[in-house]
Amino acid sequence: MLYELRIYTIYEGRMDAIQDRFKEHTFSIFTRLGMKVVNFWIDATGQNKLYYVMEFKDMAQRQRLWEQFKKDTEWIQVKRNSEENGGLIVEKIDEYFMNQAEFFGLGN
């Protein structure tokens, strides 16, 4: 499996907007497209950041699914609507790709 850690830096004052967008739209679009979110976190120190991990079979599946997501008409409309009144939400996205260590879980 391939895991992708995504870290979103959110513009000041837009944390509620990103959370609403995920809760009301993004997660259901991910599900419809076959994209699996393993876990999701909001920064505990007050930074305007959220973090989530996605699971893919391999990099080829990851690339294919993200391309489908970016072109999805529902997503395009949701993004447009969520940014219409308050402006941009996500300032920066950092992506990290990981494979689980073979030894994890042994003796833990």
TrEMBL record:
Span of domain NIPSNAP: 3-98
Pfam family, one: NIPSNAP
Name of this protein: NIPSNAP family containing protein
